[in-house]
Amino acid sequence: MSKTPPTVLKFALLGLLAQSPCSGYDLRKQFAETPLKLFSGSPGSVYPALHRLHELGLLEETSPPSATGRRKQIFAVTAAGRAELIVWLQQPVTRDDVIWSLHELQLRFVFVGEFLGREPAVRFLEAFRKELAEYAVYLTAFHEATSAGESPYGRLSIEVGIEGYRLHTRWAERALSELASEDS
Amino acid sequence: MSKTPPTVLKFALLGLLAQSPCSGYDLRKQFAETPLKLFSGSPGSVYPALHRLHELGLLEETSPPSATGRRKQIFAVTAAGRAELIVWLQQPVTRDDVIWSLHELQLRFVFVGEFLGREPAVRFLEAFRKELAEYAVYLTAFHEATSAGESPYGRLSIEVGIEGYRLHTRWAERALSELASEDS
DNA sequence: GTACACATGTAACCGGTTACATGATTGC
DNA sequence: GCAATCATGTAACCGGTTACATGTGTAC
């Protein structure tokens, strides 16, 4: 269903591990306990994904110095992994992203801020805001063009959709002004 | 990605065909031209899904009376298909739905209204509203508990999430009062 | 000694995605 | 005759889901 050829989970893992190296188990906990759960973290997705990234050379396994025999594989991103993450963060914000991958854009925003800093985050937000506003306008036009013979249910449903994009637009504007008025 | 074992597309097709029988091509157009596109409608998903539903006896193919040799398979829901749709429409609204399948809930709301009528739509909205409000509260508590050491980016991101659920909650309330003040 | 949390992994199943293939009909 | 649109279909690929399997450490 989701529409994300190079899977989001990959970048969620890369980003989390770039913040601080940890094990698959730790990652699964972060997914389970935070809104990150949207990007899922079932064992059947996390462990295979970690191994794929490892084989691609985007992660390295730092052998745990632990004395106890308890196995625990700590992963950290390599230079190549960080490079791939950066490339993802620099992708343009498209209307398709806004339609199909709002959550992913939100995740990208956070990582853009944390890994690239304030200026890039501002630029990202500006592009994000623009696409959100444009899509809200498009949906509004669609709504007005078709609302004629519609049932109240369909109408209400599309209205909440439009309001959602408008809310996001206002949020982006507020975020921009907050970031602007910030020291650092 | 998404978290929907009995797939949404199935019910989107069932619901659309219950409104009026049509062909796979027509369905694809409806997906392409409306916000239904979220539930996708690539040929590789629609046609196989249609055939699956046909084999399950949920759809019947009404042979086109067309004189021209142009092939066009018109599908219509059977009694069994309509029954299955109704069962889906009567599923309780859960927090998991709110987290992972907001769009699907929105689709269900429309179909509940169109196929079951105003009273069931009101009951659906009440349940929907309750789950939305509760999850917004939960997220707010989470936010307050963790906002201490967070970067502005993570904070902003979770804030827009919370606002989204609040917006949906208010929408449900408004929809309830609109439906209440309606003749029919 | 037993229950629970830690920790990792695997396999069957399912269905969506892209990309391609096929052919009929319509308009010019 | 040719292009565009109508209309349906298929196959390779991918990865997420559930459910199960396995074994270790810790607390009681």
Order of helices and strands of chain A: HEHHEEHHHHH
Classify the helix fraction of chain A into a percent range. 55-70%
What is the spatial order of strands in the main beta sheet of chain A?
Answer: 1-3-2
Main sheet record of chain A = 3 strands, antiparallel
Overall 3D shape of chain A: elongated
Tell me which oligomeric state these chains represent.
homodimer
Give the N-to-C terminal Cα separation of chain A.
Answer: 41 Å
Number of helices of chain A: 8
* Beta-strand percent range of chain A: 5-15%
Strand tally of chain A is 3
Low-confidence stretches of chain A: none
> Which structural class should the secondary elements of chain A be placed in?
mainly alpha
What integer is the average pLDDT of chain A? 92
CA radius of gyration of chain A: 20 Å
- Largest interface, chains and sizes: A-B, 42 and 45 residues
Report on this structure.
Two copies of one chain form a homodimer. By secondary structure, chain A is mainly alpha-helical. Helices cover 68% and strands 5% of the residues of chain A. The first copy, chain A, has eight helices and three strands, in the order H-E-H-H-E-E-H-H-H-H-H. Chain A has helices at 8-19, 24-33, 43-55, 79-89, 95-100, 102-116, 118-146, 152-180, and strands at 22-23, 59-62, 74-77. In chain A, strands 1-3-2 form a three-stranded antiparallel β-sheet. Chain A starts with 7 loop residues before the first helix and ends with a helix. The mean pLDDT of chain A is 92. Chain A binds chain B through residues 1-4, 7-8, 34-35, 37-38, 40, 99-100, 106-107, 109-110, 112-114, 121, 139, 142, 151-154, 156-161, 163-164, 167-168, 171, 175, 178-179, 182, and chain B through 1-4, 7-9, 34-35, 37-40, 99-100, 106-107, 109-114, 121, 139, 142, 151-154, 156-161, 163-164, 167-168, 171, 175, 178-179, 182. Chain A binds a DNA duplex (28 and 28 nucleotides) through residues 1-3, 5, 7, 9, 23-25, 28, 40, 42-45, 47-49, 51, 68-73.
